[in-house]
């Protein structure tokens, strides 16, 4: 089986990205409304044209902060009510961005909605981000939390330790990944790290958090919103911007029973490979045909994993490819997998930098960063609990 019924039948028609800041001077809800309105206008539409909203209203802190709609997160219902829209289609899935894109594609293709806004709104609460008042570890948490295995940083440290040991990765090698992300993010007007590239010596000087993960291997919590307008390919061709077509999507979930936040490297790669196979089958393409990969980088090791899953290099070779300048955006012939800065170069925007860069490049709206590309893949999330979306500049 190749392709799927909605392949290239739905397109991104417009977008908007708010400034990404450490802590905003206004509520996340206010930023979201302004960004959604800007995306709708960018697509050449009016607010009254929108009949669908999709978001993942996730408050990513593991701490015990108050989660209030419109402040700590922003649901699709909250947005539609304040825009005065009785939307035909509203969804608030708890998951990665590919799931939101998939819902939008299916809604538009089935006729459940005509114009759908997919947005992601991220909040950085005041005080300590992961401040937690818990004094007892119950349920499955009791097997890890008392020993310091708490939160995703510990989980990725375990997986990366396994990778680094197996493939003889030099200490500090991830610094080149982070420096590349920061270099590209520093060039973007909306990035938290605008005009703030990172030198390798500063990366190495930063304290480890969960060995071997250092401070700059982690994306920084921020306030920011990104929004995209999706509509049918036919309608998109009559709107102001060049359409970018959704050619396929794929998500995976763990099938092996593991303790909480136990992320073995082999689990990531086995399920990630299944994700890639499904994506290519639905898109009717091979990995070799993809000429723009934007790798998810909520933590720096994910870049290695996604590079290998996407076929840029064999298993265990991503660190050598990076060391040889293979992802350097300033090097001719390289594969700049962090061209849009990613999360490490923008802030904790949960996969929207990858989607945004694919859209900007394929719609020919990337300005002086423009590349000659026609087929892009945005990877989002942990490889064994995330997914990817395939975007095309042509409705082939």
From TrEMBL:
Alphabetized GO MF terms: acyltransferase activity
Domain Thiolase C-terminal: 280-372
Enzyme class: transferase
SUPFAM superfamilies the record matches: Thiolase-like
EC number: 2.3.1.-
Pfam families per UniProt: Thiolase_C_1
UniProt-listed PANTHER family: ACETYL-COA C-ACETYLTRANSFERASE, NON-SPECIFIC LIPID-TRANSFER PROTEIN-LIKE 2
Name of the protein this chain belongs to: Thiolase family protein
